[in-house]
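#struct-help
A.M.: can someone run this one for me? Single chain, 222 residues.
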Amino acid sequence: MLSRTSTNWAGYAINSIGITAISASWSVPEIQCTVTGATNTVTQGVGVWVGIDGLGTAIPEQVGTISQCFNGSPEYYTFEEDPSISSGSTNHALVAIPETSGGDHIAASIAYLGNDEFQLTIKDATSDESRTYTVIIHNAARASAEWIVEAFQMLNTGKQVTLPTFQPITFSDCTASINNLAGSILQDNAESITMTDGNGNPIASPQGLNQSGTSFQVAEVG
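D.P.: on it. Structure tokens below:
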């Protein structure tokens, strides 16, 4: 398996033409906020998501969760992102389920339905709330699939947040389909991604991928 580093991602990805579906489940990471004194500002945060075309240059299709420190306190929600959203929406993201809680169990999936149509679904199994988005995305490459923990960019400033303290995040039920043939993370052109700081030191990494390629953790390093 190949490996790469990133300044904002940790997890796994598959590079392959013809991605038709991806899915996974996880629990919303509960976080500890260590930056205080900020007003109306997100200072720390961690996103967890599955996506298609995240390794490309275009805006990807993603569904996932956000755990962030706002005014020094944790808050949690789920989101959906795709390039069909109006350019007036910063970072092309929408809040899907606004009242998610830390520790809630999440199931997320994206499926290509054909004729440029995608279906993005996220469910909070703990609260029994779900959202499904069916969108048209023209000329989507469908060239990569991702299971990612991210130090995301703040919506209002575009500045990357720092990671809060969190327990290892477990992805389970990980599947990806290529030309409608279902598989796991363990497919050709799969790669692991380690998040590093500005000096190249690892700060979060994937580990513990099981033999079937359907489950792993992302943990903070150091």
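A.M.: thanks! Residues 154 and 160 are 6 Å apart (CA to CA).
D.P.: also worth noting: The domain at 2-220 is CATH 2.60.120.700 (Jelly Rolls).
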